[in-house]
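Take a look at my tokenised protein here and describe the backbone shape.
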Amino acid sequence: MNPIRMPILRQAVWVVLAIAVGTSSVRAETPAPVVGPVSQDLPAIFRKPTPESPKDLKDIQDQTRKVVDQVRPCTVGLAIGSSMGSGVIISEDGYILTAAHVIGEAGKDVVIFLPDGTRAKGKSLGLNSDIDSGMVKITEPDKQWPFAQLGDSGALKKGEWCVAIGHPGGYKSSRSPVVRVGRILSVSEKVVQSDCTLVGGDSGGPLFDMHGRVIGIHSRIGPLIHYNYHVPVNTYRDTWSRLLASEAWGGGWFGKAKTPKKPAPDAPTPAPTENAPFYGLVLDPDSEAPVVVQVLPKSPAEKAGVKVDDRILSFDRKPFGKRDDLIPALQTKSPGEVVILEVKRGNETIKLRITVGTRENQ
């Protein structure tokens, strides 16, 4: 049987996925970061490059539902002053992993929103702004919290399936944490990239493997809607004692981390979408060349005249033959800039003027 082409596949996956709100939780004995047990019982689809049958799609749906039922109760909304973000509880006594730019600095008051409507008080602990990792502790006494196990981000491989959960646009009491299914695009010691869609409010939320283990924390969006960045969970494990001790260090993407000597007034922290370039096109993940497989309605790409099946030849007058070389170049532009995009469409070579946008405008 011929493999289903990726753009059709992704639409089919979204149509077939009907994720139920879960109530189960995972239990452990200590807040120490322990790698969860490895299971080999995943359906065969998770060892294939693409689904090949309705059964494969059904298996994706069923396994995703299992993961979501297990981990959604641990995925929380965070409010720090006027800043909103997401996080994931990873211990029974209420330690939460999130992004550094969500908490801003150590020692701040945090309100935690659980999916069942429970609100809890907490404090921000340590943060590393070099890689955008941060920690929060629930301070409510004598309670046991649902929590997720930690996985091993160092064992991830390109193409593995994953599940992103968070609160896009901030926590809403009328809505459960939002689920997106995707694949791992690349892995390094300091960053995991996936094609799971992220928007403002998702920052700090968890990226799970298909066993329901935390493998990353949402950090920032990429220049394309399907190319986004997560902090590898192993970096939290490597700096665990410093985070617990409320140390703050690094400069990184979001400014210098702060460890206040006295409580600081609440102040907003930047969302991951601020000033991030956005184009509104999707490149074929199965093609080495930069070939467009989707153009989002009302996006900068659609307004510029980009079409499905266009092959991008150059960006900002610089030639690009490979998708993986083009993506970092897209990231270098700022919203409002106008750049020339040269594409091959059939037998024609066409130059288009595209005005870089922001994802919040979509």
Observations:
- The CA atoms of residues 122 and 138 lie 4 Å apart.
